[in-house]
Amino acid sequence: MFILHQTGYQMDNLANILALEIKQEIATRYFSFRKKAETESEEYKKQLDQAKISLQPTLDTIAGELATMKVLLVPDSVVYLDFLTFTRLPQSLGEQGDEGQSTEKKLNHLIFGPIFIKKHKHKKLVFSTYQALETALAKYCEEQNRLVKWHNSLEKEIDHFFRNNDIGSILDFLRQMNSPDGTRSTILDTSPGPGSDKLNRELRIFPPPPVSAELVILPLIPHFKNAKPTLKQLALRAFPGYQAN
């Protein structure tokens, strides 16, 4: 009887030691990943905040060039809408900011005022405005897309970790492990209490806010060389009687 009791006691100790090691491994894996994810998320948010400030002048330039294009194509408003469809740029962007308004006023005077520009000049203005827009967008989208890619990577890493390390399921497994004599081990007794839901929420790691929370998401537009035929047609429709030279 003593030997059996001693053997049972040793098995209890072994189960408790094993459970403790499992918990330590889970904790080490979880908190190591959490520290890595939080550190990287903080750096991402820091760079996103910096990008919001540093890209504002570029965004103003884009808005100004888009306002210029709006004026150049305004003789037929449908033409400007077709341009927006072609470039996938938001209509509201060309109506934002003082720069866009001043550019629009200046071009309105140039095109419809006493100094009426010639048709070939109108086409060149459409081309040069598009090229300036393309250059500004390339600069803006380079940083924007870098941050989007970074955020997507963080999101996938966090999702992958929790799909392969289901903390809730692991805790349930530990709760169900019993000592050899059929009683629950004290170390394994992780039965949910009043604060268990709060604990589960605290254990969960969420990705940082997306880039769209701070930046206007803009697309790259077709390269000028590829866009030139379409721009010619838009200029032709926008400027009655215009003939390509």
Write the layout of secondary structure elements.
Blueprint: H1 2-54, H2 56-72, H3 77-87, H4 97-112, H5 119-164, H6 167-176, H7 196-203, H8 224-238
Helix pairs in contact: 1-5, 2-4, 2-5, 3-8, 5-8
Largest sheet: none
How would you describe the shape?
rod-shaped
Q: What's the end-to-end separation, in Å?
A: 109 Å
Give me the strand/helix succession: HHHHHHHH
Summarize the structure.
The protein has 245 residues and is mainly alpha-helical.
Describe it for me?
The chain has one domain. It is 72% helix and 0% strand. The chain has eight helices and no strands.
Task: List its traits.
245 residues; mainly alpha; 8 helices; 72% helix; disordered C terminus
